[in-house]
Amino acid sequence: MKVAVMGYGTVGSGVVEVIESHREMIRKRTAGGSLEVAHILDLRDFPGDPHEALFTKDFNDILNDDEVKIVAETMGGINPAFDFTMKLLKAGKSVVTSNKELVAQRGLELLRAAEESGANYLFEASVGGGIPIIRPLDQCLAANNIEGVAGILNGTTNFILTMMIEKGMAFDEALKLAQDKGYAEKDPTADVEGHDACRKVCILASLAFGKHVYPNQVLTEGITNITLEDVSYINSVGGVIKLLGQIKYIDENSIAAFVSPAVVYHGSQLASVNDVFNAILVRGDAVGDVCFYGPGAGKLPTASAVVADIIDCAKHTARRKIFGWSDGAEDYVVDYRSTVKMPFYVRAKASCADVNSAFADVKYLSRKGQPSDEVAFITDVMTENELKEKLGGIDVINIIKVTNY
């Protein structure tokens, strides 16, 4: 069966490599069929590349090739990826993708186009790189009412926080190291401000609860305000800081979804996930907590998930997989700040007397070199709006959510 690849960057080149290096395994998994890369779409030139004869700069070469039944979209971004994908699906070609931004923003439209044409639109690689999570969430955990999801969904931020926790590096120093190692882009905004994790939260929430969630509905906070002082205080009570995407079931018509730094105590399966690794914890009413762990990005891990989707499409050419979700609504994702209760870590320029007059029950933290006019504490369970009200005129330095995962 002929396939095409759109985008020959890190993931796209990995897809071609996996298809070629695993031919025999793929043949067995597709009951005797084989995959052949017929076209590679990219506007750049790759002189000397062993696949040079397969390159095209014209999308129509793929669209109009009736022998191409499956296309891997690894271009990234919204356009032209959306336009190309929509045209392919309407033409009855199945599309698989690693493009989290596209799935989060326009996934509902593309799933509907696939349904109308009888094609498949699959996106296992869009969340967690090589970690299998889309199929388990849709199939293996189908007997559960999902109560919540919490995930370390971005390897760059997890690496930075790991360096701050284990090596005592300041944020700027850890970011520079991540860039030097190729984990962070020259402009790291999408990672460190939480936008990348937000897109993945949208996909997980849409799949887990059956209604589309858009990025602008997910309140998102990055890690740029985390300091070594915060790391030290939280370490004193057996915790670490992770950037978490969290989704919580509220009722049949509403969920909460947000991205932010969070205190995770040792003993949680998420606390020991370090460096560039990702982990996604799903809480079901029947199964309890299950955790999916592995490399969240990278050429071959992500490519392996893309090729797995290609194999799935090759096995389902005669029928469409039942997969997707329905429309969301503007009020479907509630403001967690007024609805979700949790403890909070607070660091402030204040005295214990100031804190005790505002809070009935707090746990004070300490660190080496703590200034006499600085306090840090963990609050009782409350909403964030209630917390802000209690803090009143206290000079707050930082606030971090405390997770119960």
Structure characterization notes:
The chain has about 400 residues and is an alpha/beta fold. About 35% of the residues lie in helices and about 25% in strands. The protein contains 15 helices and 16 strands. The chain has helices at about 10-20, 25-30, 60-65, 80-90, 100-115, 135-140, 155-165, 170-180, 190, 195-210, 230-235, 300-315, 335-340, 350-360, 385-390; strands at about 1-5, 35-40, 55, 70-75, 95, 120, 145-150, 220, 240-250, 255-265, 275-285, 290-295, 345-350, 365, 375-380, 395-400. Strands 7, 8, 9, 10, 11, 12, 13, 14, 15 and 16 form a 10-stranded mixed beta sheet that branches. A 6-stranded parallel beta sheet has the order 3-2-1-4-5-6, with helices on both faces. A hairpin with an 8-residue loop joins strand 14 and strand 15. The protein is elongated and about 75 Å long.
Q: What is this entry, summarized?
A:
The protein is of the alpha/beta class and 405 residues long.
Characteristics:
six-stranded parallel sheet, alpha/beta, 15 helices, ten-stranded mixed sheet, about 400 residues
Give a topology summary.
Layout: E1 2-6, H1 10-21, H2 23-29, E2 36-41, E3 55-56, H3 60-63, E4 68-73, H4 81-90, E5 94-97, H5 100-117, E6 121-122, H6 134-140, E7 146-152, H7 155-167, H8 171-180, H9 189-192, H10 195-209, E8 219-220, H11 228-235, E9 239-251, E10 254-265, E11 277-284, E12 288-295, H12 299-315, H13 336-339, E13 344-349, H14 352-358, E14 363-365, E15 374-378, H15 384-391, E16 395-402
Parallel strand pairs: 1-2, 1-4, 2-3, 4-5, 5-6, 8-10, 10-16
Antiparallel strand pairs: 7-9, 7-11, 9-10, 11-12, 13-15, 13-16, 14-15
